[in-house]
Design a protein that fits this description.
Elements lengths: L1 H16 L29 E6 L9 H14 L4 E6 L7 H10 L4 E4 L5 H10 L4 E5 L5 H4 L5 E6 L1 H15 L4 E6 L4 H20 L5 E2 L3 E2 L6 H13 L4 E5 L2 H14 L6 E4 L11 E7 L1 H14 L6 E4 L6 E3 L9 H16 L5
Helix pairs in contact: 1-3, 2-10, 3-4, 6-7, 6-11, 8-9
């Protein structure tokens, strides 16, 4: 109870100061969907979503992509507004969510499996608030005492495939690398998909490509870990990298760019947005359109049907895709082969 009282006082402070408890706090907005008009509820109500994040919205990786996707969903639904709290430590998740609940927010959005325990705790204490958990477990909604939690779950294996196929085509050393933030189920799924797709595609090309054991920073904001890991893995011969570690990935790219020093021979594949051009070493990206899953959550909240389910995203429904390719570094014939593999993934014939 003492902890909840502290959180309620924190909520009052946020109302008075308009400042988030762990980082920047930004009001969301309205706006029509450029694709054909905005989505609005018929009751005239304005809904509010609170976004919590353990990295920065300016980290150039996961945090930036998640913030951009949520912003896009809000802009496409003019009856929704958003605020965010970023750069949170693990012990700040609870207080940040409770603060939003006490301000009357309709939906809390947490972008990662690592928020699960805090989400379930707050969801039990606030049964009238909805909680959307990106990369939440398939069994997580069933654990919510009040049925007010939904998992948004992009297909982790397909995410790995999208990056792995390109890695298998582009690796010259036969060794590729993967850096994770934390050893989560979804991160393991991406790693396993990455290494199996790379091995399969390489075999089709008459060569062998293997992935080093995944390394984990136990952090999403320690870019120095990314630098350390990337340098160590390049010493082991890795020439293509893929990661699931936000700012840690940015550190790895910094190390790769310094290693390349003018001649790009070690590559990185970004995710979960199209980051081509951000670093010279990036040759492509795996793109996850989480805004579409968030939009489905918005509609469920409006309809009163939210909670107790898993909303899936994959190549088949367009949530997952491959981003633009670096045509200066990837030969045309390799681009064609890669696009063909992506089509096989969509058709369900990849590795069959």
């Amino acid at each position: 109870m003492k902890k909840k009282l502290i959180a309620m006082l924190l909520a009052l402070t946020m109302v008075l100061s308009l400042a988030a408890c762990g980082g920047g706090n930004s009001g969301g907005s309205s706006g029509g969907n450029a694709g054909g008009g905005d989505s609005s509820s018929g009751d005239g109500k304005t809904y509010k979503v609170g976004f919590i994040l353990n990295s920065s919205i300016n980290d150039g990786g996961w945090g930036t992509a998640c913030y951009t996707e949520l912003t896009a969903a809000v802009e496409a639904n003019s009856n929704w507004e958003m605020q965010y709290t970023d750069s949170l430590s693990q012990d700040g998740y609870y207080d940040a969510m409770v603060a939003y609940c006490n301000q009357g927010f309709d939906l809390i959005y947490a972008p990662g499996n690592e928020y699960t325990s805090a989400v379930l705790q707050v969801a039990e204490e606030y049964p009238d608030v909805c909680f959307a958990l990106l990369n939440g477990g398939e069994d997580t909604p069933g654990q919510a005492a009040n049925g007010n939690v939904t998992s948004l779950l992009p297909n982790a294996q397909q995410i790995g495939w999208i990056a792995g196929a390109l890695a298998g085509l582009m690796s010259q050393s036969g060794t590729i690398a993967f850096i994770g933030g934390m050893e989560l189920d979804t991160t393991l799924g991406k790693y396993n998909g990455y290494k199996e797709a790379a091995a399969y595609v390489a075999q089709q090309e008459g060569k062998t490509v293997t992935a080093l054991d995944a390394v984990y920073a136990n952090s999403f904001d320690d870019s120095s870990k990314g630098i350390e890991f990337a340098n160590a893995m390049m010493e082991q011969g890795a020439d293509v990298f893929f990661g699931d570690a936000s700012a840690v990935d940015s550190g790895a790219r910094q190390a790769i760019d310094e290693h390349n020093s003018g001649s790009v021979t070690v590559y990185d594949i970004a995710q979960p947005a199209d980051f081509l051009g951000q670093n010279p070493c990036i040759i492509g990206s795996q793109v996850t359109d989480n805004s579409s899953l968030i939009g489905l959550s918005f509609k469920a909240v409006e309809d009163g049907t939210f909670g107790g389910e898993v909303l899936y995203g994959d190549l088949q429904n367009g949530v997952l895709s491959a981003g633009a390719l670096n045509t200066d570094l990837i030969p045309e014939e390799v681009q064609a082969k890669y696009n063909d593999y992506i089509q096989q993934m969509k058709d369900g014939t990849f590795m069959q």
